[in-house]
Amino acid sequence: MFKYKNPILIVLLLFFLFFSFYPTLYEISQSPKLKIKNRDFILEHNYYWPDFNLYLSKVRQGYENRWLAVEKYTSEPHRGSIIQIFYLYLGKIGSILKIEPNYAYQLGRIIFSPLLLIIILLLITFYFRNPLWQILAFIITIISGSFPNIVVTNGQMQISRYMEWWSNIDSLQRLAFIPHILFGQVVSFYLLYKLTINRPTTNDQRLKTLFFYILLANATGLVFPPSLITLLGVLILLEIINFIKKKYIIRNIPPQRDPASGGTLYLILFSLPALLYLFFTTKFLPWSALVNFHRNHPMMVPLDQYILGTGPIIFLGFLGSILAIMNRKRQYYPLILWIVVTFLFASLFSVVKEQSPLRFTQTGLFIPLGILGSYLLLEIWRFIKFRNLYKFCYLLFVICYLLINLFIMKTSLKWQLSFINQRIGADIPLVPYPPQTMYPLTGWMEAIRWLRHNTPNDQVILAEITAGNYIPAYSGNYVYFGQSNTVDYNRKTSEVDQFFLGQMSASQAQLFLQNGRIKYIFFGPQEKEKLNYNLLEKLYPFINLIYSNPHVFIYSVSR
Question: Does residue 295 sit in helix, strand or coil?
Fold first, then answer.
């Protein structure tokens, strides 16, 4: 069996990739059912938050020949920046390949999901030399997930997961998750491996690669800052530990310069520009809106639910960490510190309201937990392997652990497919919020595509929240509001409500549209419902109908 280790690992990698992408493939296979329902199939991802269209709007900017990203979910004029530029360049790749923006987004998942699994394999083959344990540790790291959550619904017992709303904690969804988060995990663990676990042995090797590592670190900081912050925290703590050890413990040995340590210090120093850029750029509109949103609506870590959602591996990983420290297994220290730093920053940002604490759990925490948990199981096996009764209990535990976690993955798959089926079958309301809970009406999407082909993409559109969320992603226009990145989101929500409820006089509405730089008004089912299906032009005679279909009117604003 062991001579087939590599083929087995490759088969496992491909299996888990297929397993994690199966909901996407299933959704594509169900798309013909929408034609008879007059709804458009659009391939989306991570449906539970209104962020997908935000990323897609940046992807579309890559098709518009932009080199810097702008925020199209707000109407204030501003310069471009390199914030969220990752998706813009995914769009440029998609433009070269001549694929739709939605598929350019999916391309990010297709690229970085296998890279994440390869990085996990790289780490595991370093830590475990025995082929059987390499296979077992890989499986444990990948599948470890939530404790079973037993619930009773309509008199029937069902098994689900804890903290289902946080997709990144799900053992199935996290393998093919949001592209920029996958990028952060892949690059940060690659750098952790190269800088602390499998360190360069010569100055030449270090000098040749250090510049490349610094570029990767800065890219990570711009794409997914929590990954770089966590990595730098680990590197700094390792340097402090090494300094203390050399200064206070090894007193009688002359100090020696560690070339790898020098490279680490350079990387820490020269990767700060990315974080400084984000710090200063987010002090100004519109980029400050996202930081303000996290300040006002922080996603905290519900510790009890998080422990249950992470599952038994959190206890196995903690015990494995303690055992590695007791056995002085220094090679495990970077992984141990990754766990420590994750919870330190989650705690810090629970007090300092600059970032949502829960974001720091998206840095790939399952990887060190899985490896350290596997190390614990390996050491237990070494201790009991000559005790037959203990061996039987141990093997029974491992088999049950694997089967239960595979069942939890199957539960996640069933849950995702059920959600897709509900989306396919849903008809009410005509236009939903959150946006991705239903497929959009064909006529509604036709109106948005009309905007793309018939209006300049630097013009501002006024619409209710769902159309406002879709328009930047599918037509490329700016909107007055439509996502949490909108400047003064609460004020604009109130103003849009007043406008579509008819609570503004004609002069007030004209001033509102002028101040908001609004050139077009999107009047669809959600907007019509606010006005009790009355005609908007009767209230505001200075607007002109320029497009209509059974679902949507589009007006231009006269100056």
Answer: helix
